[in-house]
Structure formats: structure tokens, C-alpha cells
UniProtKB/TrEMBL annotation:
CDD domains from the UniProt entry: MIT_C
This protein's encoding gene: Mitd1
Domain MITD1 C-terminal phospholipase D-like as annotated: residue spans: 76-215
Transmembrane segments: none
GO cellular component, one term: midbody
InterPro entries: MIT_dom_sf, MIT_domain_contain_protein1, MITD1_C, MITD1_C_sf
Protein name: MITD1 protein
GO annotation (BP), single: midbody abscission
Amino acid sequence: AGADTVKRAVQLDLASRFQESLVCYQEGIDLLLQVVKGTGRRPGEGGLAAVCCSPTSFLSDGKYHKQIRIEENATGFGYEKLFQEYLTEIVSEVWVEDPYIRHLYNFLRFCEMLVKGPCKVKTIHLLTSYDEGSGRNQQISGLEEIQQSLRNYGVTLNIEFSSSIHDREIRFNNGWMIKIGRGLDYFKKPQGRFSIGYCDFDLRPCHETTVDVFHTKYTKKM
């Protein structure tokens, strides 16, 4: 577990994601030092592997990094699977930064998850880029329709466009930050409107991607 975390730290470092790489370096080195000192446990016996993989282990103080690798054509990775454990009742504000919000049904499904709770989201901030070419008008009108629909549920959607945005990340005001390599659009296109997985995203095959979860307390600049 420690070696894998350090490898991920190197990947983030090379991608100039220095704050996140620092978290992984610190966690990976700490895990390796524990092995050197001797824990008396083997991986898989409730030792280091269990601590690294359990999302509740560090929830109390936010000192936590988790990585999920979604394999090509994998299923069972709907939005609830990735986000639900971080959407506590105190979450009232959400930030979505993704330059390629093009498949608006995916973003709509994400918003539906927020509306259902158990969180009490009141404001969603979306920062994305304009669709190039003829799709821009459809993108804008679609987002405005989602905006109006959310307003009926007491949720405000603030939409901003930027031509310089590159990173993809989702943040909750309880401090959790989720970075998905492909953003929200990691699902493959369904074979048809009446094929399994069209409505239930847990059953829809995914593109290969990596999900990193951090707490902002440990990613702030020194």
C-alpha cells in the first residue's frame, strides 16, 4: 500500500499537482516506515491495507487520501458509489470544475444525486468551458434548463465559463475534494435508449480512469 501511494505521488508530481503529491508522499512514507518498524500484521489481515482502504479511518480529522482505479468496461461505479460517503448532512455548497461538461445528462444525474441527499445542498458552482462550434447554443440552453429545474428544488446553480480551465475537480464545503481523470463523463455511451445501463449508471460500462480523494485541509499551500 505504501509503495502504491508513493508511485501515485510521483505521478501527481510529474503532473505539477504538487499539493496533492505532497499528501501522497507523506502518507506513503508513513506507511513504509510502519512496515520497517514492524507492525506484526500482514496485508489483508486488518493491518496497513485495511487502514489505507477504509474511507472512515481518517474521516474524523480529514487526514486522508484514497485512490480508486476504474478499469475499462467496469460497472458498478455510479455517482452514488463515488460520492455518497462524502455527502454528509453539513454539505450545503458544491464546486464543480470541469472544462468538458458536454454530456449534460451526466451533469444532470450528478445534480439529482445532490438533490436527493442526505446532504442539504443549496448552491452548486459550475466552472466549465464553452463547447466549440455548433454545440455551444445547445450546451448553454441545456445548462439553463438544469438551472431552472434546480431552482424549483431550492438549489441555486451558478454557471461560469473559462477558456483557461484545465483541471477537473469536485469540492464539497465539508472539505472533501474528488479528482476524476475524465471528470464526470467517465461513462461509455449506451448501446441504445432501451439497453441496460441507459438509466441506471451503476450498470453502465466505464472508460478507464483514476479517482483521487483528498481533504482540503491537507492540500492547502504552506
